[in-house]
User: Fold these one by one.
Assistant:
Number 1:
Amino acid sequence: MKTFSKIYLGFLTLAMLLWAMPWAINFALSRPGRSPFVMYSPLIKDFILYSHDETNGLKRHDTQGNTYTEAQADSLLPTFYVRQLVTDGRWPDTLLGRHVTPHEVQRTNFSFRSNAADVNAIGVELYMLQEAMSGRVEMELPSDVLRFTPNGLEFIDMASNTVDAEKSQRFTETLKAKGFAFPPRHIASNPSTRKDYDNGMLLLDAQNQLFHLKQLRGRPYARHVELPEGLEPRQLFVTEFRDRQLLGLLCDAENTLWALRANDYTLHRTGITRFDPQRDNISIVGNMFDWTVRISTPQTERWLAIDATSLQLIDTLTISPNRGFHMPGLCFGSPTSPHLRPRWR
Amino acid sequence: MQAEQHKIEQQPKHAENVIECQNLSHRYGKRLIYKDLSFSVPRGRILGLLGKNGTGKTTTINILSGYLAPTAGCCTILGYDVRHMPHTMRRHIGLLIEGHVQYQFMNIEQIERFYAAFYPNQWRRDAYYELMRKLRVAPKQRISRMSCGQRSQVALGLILAQNPQLLVLDDFSLGLDPGYRRLFVDYLREYARAEQRTVFLTSHIIQDMERLIDDCIIMDYGRILVQRPVRDLLSLTRSYTCPAPDRFDLKTLDNLNGIYHPELNRGTLEFTATIPLGQIELLLKQRGLEIDALKSRKINLEDAFIGLTGKY
Amino acid sequence: MLKSIILKEWLKTRWYLIFAAIVTIAYSAFLMLRMHRAIDLKGAAHIWEVMLLRDTIFINSLSVLPLLVGLVLALMQFYPEMQRKCLKLTLHLPFSRMQTTLAMLLYGLLALVLCFAMSFILMRLSMQTILPPELIKHVLLSSLPWFTAGIAAYLLGAWVILEPTWKRRIAYILLSALLLRVFFVSDTPEAYNQFMPWLALLTLLCASLSWLSVHRFIDGQQD
């Protein structure tokens, strides 16, 4: 017992030293590096980087080394700085040969973000299916929540904490009629009141089939989405962009992102590859011409430019940010997962 | 069969000496307390350990009670090494901690019930309550609210109820007024004599020891100065005085076996000795001292202790 | 004999344990009452939404209470043993020293588990009518590391208090503070789910550390 106690004390001391010492050293010595802000300009067909220089402050430049003034940069990213250009009276008549109004630009602009920490989040297995056709301008959250069981789904009325059997049966039957195999393996939705409309839920059933589920005036709407041959979905995202072109994004087992069109439920392979939703953070700033995609891992940042129509890759840029001094050690948390456990990092 | 053997093994071994310490050495860090200390306490004797502060009395008690690992040497009690004694053997050893410490949060009834469970077949409840009756404490009064004297009686009562073969008492007179000291000593002496128990004790107050102990060990820094029955010690040890000769130098008496701590006091030479008068005169003569008027005086244990160990 | 040891521990800690149980239960009851009142005022739907969409569990302020309860129990149980080296009396009893130490720790452990279980059950029952099982599980699982921290605080507290020298005691306090920090690294609900079985095992093994302190006491280690 005494020997065991001694060994255990040694183990605990070592573990705590490996945790506390590197933390203290990193805390004292490391200076986090600032990563530049990057946007793709369709006008110069290059990325524009907003980087911080110790001496000159903010610097706007492209990958060729050309630097720009603030006003020049605004003009080179017209869809991003649309409001500034309109205010300055500098909004052009045509963009890339097209007559475009500021309103049209604002309607087609979107931003999308997904963090590994959110993907790996410990969610309570209760979901919200909002009303997609409420007839009201303001979005509302539902008065019930949704639970999936091995044989169906159940709506639980929040006020009474009881299952709405009739509604549950209605939705279960609709899904089953469409060939849905319970329980689902993956569920995606964006319950929120801060969006323009609701696209419902994307579901991956027990047999890896993709389904779209919506609630229209309390009635179920379900649709089976045909997957292209060989596509194995892994992560689903419902998008509710203002232009209503997309229903969602899908990441496959090979870490490629696919776009699901809303009008015909077709899936389109994008040029966004090597994206692991469970480890990488992604942000997409899109407009009618292109998408600027940032995929960041703790080590590197990859910037991609994607053509908004063909969804193909136009350009890439890789930046290894200067993270400063880092002493490896034991830690429990992780920037990519809320789950705590001992990790060596 | 095995169980029976186990039982036999855990009985006290019938050795002549209840305590046997051999070549004990102890140091705290670099500070040496003593080296190669050996002594034994025969069955049925009451032995007092005397020594000035810092000579290692508490160290010895701690080693004996199993709460200090000596740097070297070995101590056995009732035939068992105190460091590796079977736990059941501890029921034969009564321990009084310095300051009569007992569980402060218990009252006299609770503490009796608590200890009784550990000493089946040997617990003497009556002995405890007999002593408790002498104290004017309420049965529900917590020990923390008792005076030091009352606490000493509770601690003593518990040891008497335990009825162990060996009692180890660390500074039993600490904090006690003369009345309680006398009560403690009388009770303990009566009990030890009647039950033929072995006692090993220390105390700051040597007068109390004289009434109680059979044998004494007087410790000096790092060694045992004297170990013998008190009666022998007191019959041999005398205090001597004589007028000091002219131009007498105390250094003349350095390193004389049997003569302790000579002092010059206003022209009078004083010392303590454990050897007969004739032998003293012979020793002094050998050092060139002719003394005629050497006066000897019988002394008590406290005087003997100071005479042998010195005032400083 | 074991009964006697338990009796001794009970005498030392009974008033504190009653107090601790009242405080823990009263505080849990207060949190539950607050949740019920929030539902009365803002409606169940609002509370469910906040819990589902904003990761709120409404009982975060309970987090350090079990830690304090465990720490003070260690103090109430083991400080009297170290007062004027009373532990010598306990270890001089004709009973296995290891069993004595374990019995003392087991007593405290069971007392704490009982105290925490009452609060746990109270929360479970009072949420039953207003929340679905998924959310109840979510709240209770999120509180599990705090209760485990209470047990760890007790065992580490015992280890520190039983240590006979101040030099080591201070080192042990620093180490214990770090170990207890592990239970509070994240306030994300259910963040400890995967780590919890290991953390619970590591916590229980902390009981062995007290034996090290007791051994050092028997060896006569001092400042």
Number 2:
Amino acid sequence: MDIIAQLFAGLSLGSVLLLAALGLSLTFGQMGVINMAHGEFMMAGAYTAFVVQGVVGDAGVSLLVALPLGFVVGGLLGLLLEATLIHRMYRRPLDTLLVTWGVALVLQQVARDVFGAPNVDVSAPAWLSGAVEIGGLALPRTRLFILALAAVCVVALALALRATPLGRRIRAVVQNRDLAEASGISSRATDRVTFFIGSGLAGIAGVALTLLGSVGPTLGTNYIVDAFLVVVAGGIGQIKGTVIAAMALGLMQAFFEYSTTASVAKVLVFVAIVAFLQLRPQGLVSVRTRSLA
Amino acid sequence: MTVLTALLRPGRARTLAAFALAAALLLLAPAVLSPFRLDLLAKFLCLAMVAVGIGLAWGRGGLLTLGQGVYFGLGAYLMAMHLKLADAGPGGVPDFMLLYGTGQVPGWWEPLRSPVSAILLVLLVPAALAALLGWAVFTRRVRGAYFAILSQALAAAFAILLIGQQQTTGGTNGLNGFRAFFGYDLADPVNKQMLYLIAAGVLLVMVAVVRWLTVSRFGELLVAVRDQEDRVRFLGYDPALVKVVAYVVAAVMAAVGGALFVPIAGIISPADVGVVPSIGFLIGVAIGGRATLLGPVLGSIAVSWAQTSISEQFPSGWIYFQGALFILVIAFLPGGLASVAGKLRRRRAAAPPGEAAPGDAAPDAGPGPELVPERSPA
Amino acid sequence: MSDTPATAQPPETEIDLAAAEALLGTDTSRFRHDYLEVRGLRVEFDGFVAVRDVDLTVTQGDLRFLIGPNGAGKTTLIDAVTGLVRATGSVAFGRTELLGRSTHRIARAGVGRTFQTASVFEELTVLQNLDIAAGARRRPLTLLRRRRGTPEAVEHALETVGLTALRDVPAGVLAHGQKQWLEIGMLLVQDAHLLLLDEPVAGMTHAEREETGQLLRRIGSQRVVVVVEHDMEFLRSFADSVTVMHQGRVLAEGTVNEVQNDPAVVEVYLGAPAGPATTEGDLP
């Protein structure tokens, strides 16, 4: 029974990581932009949920309103960032990392000045309180909801990339910018849309996180490092890798935590990832192509 | 080549002059500054040591290391533990262990009782960790953003580990309240001044070491690896080895900075070594000019000074300021302030270049020739 | 063995040697007879077979050109020989098996290559570029010393590729053709005996092509040289032999004339003429 409990804890943590990393797998994995402010977009989504609840009142309605609204808030922030800073830096990915770190610092401080430094709480709707009993094991409904939400996001993103004209355009630009441009696709517009979706997913992740704990200005920083690790371990450019890596990291953290302590588990997960990169330096799922010589 | 002609070469003469000026200023400071300000400056010098190493690894080698706080922290905690054990006396137990822990010193702290082994460990432990991680990562050609993210994850894990092991590391509070530094009373202003002079001397030595590495064949090779790693490999070198050396040197410099930071600042805590301070080290390097010799030092000291004076007046202002610095300097002045002079000169000399998009690695070589070609897009 | 080290020569021969070296670049084992032997080479990318069943033998002094339409697998073949992509089969240089070695070890075995886009160290001077190329066999500690003077091999390479006057110029400001020459010079001081050149005259003027061809002739007599090239005029002027690749396989091999009259080659080229700047159309 213990094993199953750990399994659930791991998958639950994995689904949170997945929500955080899914947007990154677009912006970092597909576009090569290392957006350190992604965590702050999550934070913005979480505060969106807080504000919506203040306005709407009813926890159930406010969650349903906050999810799409968080997507829009995160997306718009991303759009703004792309249009002002990132688009001039596509040739300098490492520098983008530092610039977006600066943006992250500013956004955190804005949150601190607007909402105050202490954490705030968003109450979960009644239909998500309590737990589901399965075989003597109590599974919190909020955790199950987040698992389902992550699954929905993954499926929606995969469908959008595979089946829509927009998705085809995104993939075309990612694979060969110049060729896509030559065949009439505006890579600028595509970049913006990709960034909007990726950042919007961060907003959704932020809303979801309000179900697990309180909301503070540093909410994003707590997840950003792990989320990037997920994308690194999962491999560039494939959602499949991100999903597997997120779940693997969640499970590892849960099981290491169970047999040692939370802090030692963190170190062990890091060691495991470095060891894994010895076997697969390109990450779990990678497309091998002729090198660009 | 005689010493005289060597001195007459413009690059070298300029460097020597700058170096002498910096040394003179540093040695003059105790006479001018109040003990409080001198203490602050000493602290800034320790942070600048980290920046010197980053200048080599990032500016010259293109290794964006976001986890120098780990090596700074290792040096600092090893030194702090030695001071704690020394304060406690032979066989004694440091106060915080009596407070949080079992009241017993764990076996792996014991070697730090001896001053000699403490100094050796301050140098060797960070070097070994950097060599191990660097080797594992660079030989598998994990580079660029991947390396940056891994180094940052290491910083996160390290800070979390320190917090989690309260009984042996002091947890969130860290280690503080040191009374003496190798037998010298830390409350005595004379000893504080001595610490300042040690820090200044060590920093100057580090700058000299980086200068030496930069002008050596190794330095040329490092730049070559940064710009065309595959080309270097096809010439028969192992680029991983070159990167590991640069990374280890940077790690040791950070560790020494950390070790000296402890007696000067009187405290080390996880807040000094985690993700946020680790990235914070980079901004000074970027402002000063990441690929220059003295740029990282001056930039780092200036940023530390700005942080102190801005935080004194507007507590939240510093965060905005730091964020703005990251955005403005990296996006619009990637060569740092050191590149402004060169840019002005070029603008006067020639028609303005079009979209001068510098490469990821610093475009403006500092001490080298000013003539820097624009990259043609591949 | 007949491999007499140069240092053991009596003084009067030494003068001859130096003169020869000035012309040829450094060649410490001029009596060695090298050859490249590729057998059953196969390269796969995620199920797509880019190179299959390739056999190729190139001997010293035979300036071999490798041609074929785009996507024929020419560059992939070079990538496989130099360890950049994983391959199965066998690639032997002399008695050394190259497959399975890491790239830098293959380079140390005497294999050098250039890239389609000249890759030199743009922030370093011409001299520094060559000095680095000369240094792979240096002991680690000598790397910590500052470069003093110019190694002889570097001096000779500067002359051979005609860049002596530009030695202190950053490589980034060189003209396109000069960068290609610098890259070839780097291979010379690297002491490579197998040279794999990927489109060395792309983007060069007619005069530059002519000079490059002469340069390849000069250095090719002592080395195994494989040139990937689209330019047919250049090929006719300088190739000793030609290998034609198509869809990952070797389609034909022989002298320029033989290849031009091969019906299979004619069909491939008439069916799929390659690259705009080429004159393959008039190949048959």
